[in-house]
Amino acid sequence: MTFSQFPTDLASVGSYDWPRAPATSSLKEGYRRLREKLRVLDDRNADLLPDDLERLSGSMIPDALWSSLRAYQFERLDKVYLEWARREEGPHTVCAFVMMPSVPRHFLADWAADRGLDLVDAAAVPTGGAALIVPDISSLVRRSLEGRAAMRSYLAELDGASRNVLLGMSSWTWTYLAQTSAIETVVSDARCFAPFGDKALAELLRAHIGDRVLKSADSGKGILAEDDEGAPKDRYLKTLAARAYGCPWAAMRLLDAAVNQEVDANGDATELPEDADHDDTGDDHEDAATWLQDPAVPKLPSRIERIGRFVLHALLIHGPLTAKELGMVLPMTLPVGIGSALERVGLIKIEDGKILVRESAYPHVRRILSEAGLPLDQI
């Protein structure tokens, strides 16, 4: 499948074009948060919405959309790294691929395995052969004198490697290492996925859920109708791209969480007939419209707000940690049950005894840390 509006290349780290929300959207978002804090819960858009809306219990996003997005991004990696990764002769270089925490876990490892490349944990650097793919070096990152010394030793080993090496890491790990371990002197090239703007998101939606009429609860208009320049007329997708920081996986998850549908007399969601004739403005088939109304965003309870921010910040830098490991990288004592408390809010999950930020919650986590004034990732 060909996508004309998708970014065709990877972005160089340091030149990522962060999507910006329209000014009016930013003001409205700030006003909405203020009303939430003041517990003013009246719905300003209630007059635009049908009375019988229900939030979908399942996902609106089909598997084909995720598969298409995965295949497309695999091809972006192929374009830059595949020939280089299969080359055995020198000169040898160390490259880095940097991902937002909202990119599916193990994405780089899945790509390397699918292409038959050599994978290794972030510990040793075997000699010889084609490129070595280290999908995630976060397990080596520890904010201590010993941890920084160990990372410098690892980078020195990479600097003398007799094969090409591709390091995978989160944008937060990269930012930390760039500030503390001079990783940019060893890595000759660092790239990341380029951002998806509103046009790319609209094209992705049209290709996979074009049989639905998607309407913004904020404006009452269809979000996929185009202007004369091919951009969506409504600002919903432009705002969505900004809220997702340009990550298409994050954008689709946020959109999925905002879905409401009308229900019929039997309590079933109203579906648009497959053979229905409609346009993207959403002016037709009113009864079949899918409405997008953003749910309340997750917030830290006041009793754990301060420690919660430090925990989330540490998890983004270090990756999944056990409770004991988490306590070792923070300058304060962790309260008992902090992991479970953050899990109940929906910001983290506990998997195989390790605590990690939920991919679906990453936009909310980054917003929480930004509003608290903590250092953010830079790509």
TrEMBL record:
Region (Disordered): 269-290
Source domain of life: Bacteria
Biased composition (Acidic residues): 271-286
Name used for this protein in its record: MarR family transcriptional regulator
Organism: Aliiroseovarius zhejiangensis
